[in-house]
Amino acid sequence: QLQLVESGGGLVQPGGSLKLACAASSLEYTTIGWFRQAPGKGLKPVACINKRSGTTDYDLSVKERFTISRDDAENTISLQMNSLKPEDTAVYYCAATPMITSCTATFMRAWGEGILVNVSS
Length: 121
What we know:
Elements: E1 4-7, E2 10-12, E3 18-24, E4 31-37, E5 43-50, E6 56-58, E7 66-70, E8 76-81, E9 90-97, E10 110-111, E11 115-119
Parallel strand pairs: 2-11
Antiparallel strand pairs: 1-3, 3-8, 4-5, 4-9, 5-6, 7-8, 9-10, 9-11
């Protein structure tokens, strides 16, 4: 079973930056990315990347602020978050699927446990 482990969360001030990482136990996936759930709200997409092609898919709420990329390690992706806003506060989940698809939660078949990002003064 594919396992996903998130790291890099924490507390950051508005306007600041934070970098998340997701380590996958295997390469048996095609699309991998990040979703988030803000307090009292539903699960929403953040950004996804195609493992092989590098094609990315960003939610409009984070486009031009967040960057998803493949790290040097083949089984790791990162999410560089810049210009953070209080509304970015959420539990962030790494998720993956063997499908070539857009960043849609229902298509994901493996999930990490989630990591908290708190954007606050």
